[in-house]
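Student: Hello, beginner here. Can you help me understand the protein record under this note? Any guidance would be welcome.
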Amino acid sequence: MTQESVTLVQNSLVNKKFLETIKIVDGVALHLEYHQERLNKALKTSNVYELEKLLSPPSNGLYRCRIVYDLKEIEIEYLRYEKRTIATLKLIFNETLVYDKKYVNRDAINRLVEKKEKCDDILIIKNGFVTDTSIANIAFYDGKYWFTPKSALLEGTCRARLLKEGKIIATDIKVEDIKNFKKIALMNAMIDFDIIASDNIEEIIC
């Protein structure tokens, strides 16, 4: 990459803020290498921030480390974490949503969440394929294997780790396929791999 092209890339990122969320347990930042990899990918460089050197979390308790960053600056805060219970998902169809990087600006997703009615969260369907909920990647169990959509909007760090470990399999999942599965799980850095309690898919998809 030439110096001119590097400059163009950097200029295009100046006004974009990215977000990283890291789980902190008793002072330990979990799976930090996956967050570092995603940060580097967002900024298109590996020379800006080293998370291991920058983090100084509380030594006791469960925290959500919230990092807001761009090429110019990084802001880090530690927030007490309480898990949000999600038992039902509203199918929301949208053909234009793009969230391929973890941006601070979630206005487009928040507008879709407003349509969830009495459900706990939404499950976004794009071009007929299952993508993500508003806060997590998703996986489906067929009785033998766990599958996650290839068409995920955002490649989450937990999803990336479980794929690498061979615990889930990426495949195309159409909206009409949902009824054929036995269980649903949500995945993100804070909840890890969280299986929704109900075994009845029809009760989950409201």
The first helix runs from residue 3 to 13. The chain has two domains: 3-80, 89-204.
